[in-house]
UniProtKB/TrEMBL annotation:
Keyword Lipoprotein: no
GO biological process: carbohydrate metabolic process
Residues in 4Fe-4S ferredoxin-type domain copies: 2-31, 89-118
Protein name: Fe-S-cluster-containing hydrogenase components 1
InterPro entries given in the database record: 4Fe4S_Fe-S-bd, ET_IronSulfur_Cluster-Binding, Ig-like_fold
SUPFAM superfamilies named in the record: 4Fe-4S ferredoxins, Cna protein B-type domain
Native source species: Gordonibacter pamelaeae 7-10-1-b
Length: 268
């Protein structure tokens, strides 16, 4: 069985994969897998951009987002006569049997199915099945300049898949596009002494959740601290440093990454 492995940490947002998909499918007919993709409106390979934090602590992450080639695709549940799951795991919407089947667009929880109004057919990423049949890589993978996109037999990636994640597990689709270093939220801030207008290096920072989970870190040589790979939730942050009174902020509601700004310490 084939899988896509996408390392978000390696994606630079160059959009080569998105352009490669257009290059391979716009104006090209690849029977029996796909009719030509429209030049606009369709993103069979999309790059999702997400901004985390606020100035000056900002990080931009890019997530390549194709069809997830699910083992139990929802599009296939809606129209089993028009959707095929190949032996190698690639999911194909048959361009002849799916004519007029608009319901396939709404069926996909990943937003990866698009409707071609001119041809009256739903379309999506085929995994470049026509190239895979020739022993070649999908075009998006072949043109990925950073190695963020890879494709091959599941066994080749066995060790990495132990640490990989998929999206929307609750849908029960069992996607075969796996992500490494997928984006999460962060909390950040900086610690300083306003009396002498200097940062405080090595301050001890504790992050606590309502369930009792605790994480700790120290400020770096710029007085900054980060807690990464966080889920949405409510957090408390406490800061301590030798010779200073401790400070804390409680009930921080994290729905998106936050720069908490300055923590000013007063000497004891």
């Amino acid at each position: 069985m084939k899988v896509f492995v996408i390392d978000v940490a390696k994606c630079s947002g160059c959009y080569n994969c998105q352009i490669a998909c257009k290059d391979e499918h716009c104006g090209n007919d690849w029977p029996p897998y796909a009719k030509p993709q429209p030049e606009t409106g369709h993103f069979w390979m999309r790059v999702k951009q997400e901004e985390h934090g606020q100035v000056p602590k900002v990080r931009v992450e890019y997530t390549p987002w194709p069809c997830m080639h699910c083992e139990d695709p929802k599009c296939g549940r809606v129209a089993p006569d028009a959707v095929d799951v190949r032996d190698d795991g690639l999911v194909i919407i048959d361009p002849e049997r799916a004519v007029g089947r608009r319901e396939l667009v709404d069926a996909c929880p990943y937003g990866a199915v698009f409707y071609n109004e001119e041809l009256d057919v739903p379309q999506k990423c085929t995994g470049c099945a026509h190239l895979v049949d020739e022993g070649k890589l999908p075009h998006c993978v072949d043109l990925c300049a950073t190695g963020a996109l890879r494709f091959g037999d599941e066994e080749e990636f066995a060790d990495e898949l132990l640490h990989a994640e998929t999206y929307l597990l609750e849908e029960g689709c069992r996607p075969r596009v796996f992500y490494l270093n997928r984006p999460y939220l962060f909390l950040a801030g900086d610690v300083w002494d306003p009396a002498c207008d200097e940062i405080v290096e090595g301050a001890r920072v504790t992050l606590a959740m309502l369930d009792g989970t605790v994480r700790k870190t120290v400020t770096d040589d710029f007085g900054d601290f980060y807690f990464r790979k966080l889920d949405e939730g409510v957090y408390d942050v406490a800061v301590e440093a030798d010779g200073y009174r401790p400070v804390e902020r409680r009930g921080i509601e994290l729905k998106k990454s936050l720069n908490l700004g300055d923590f000013a310490l007063v000497r004891a």
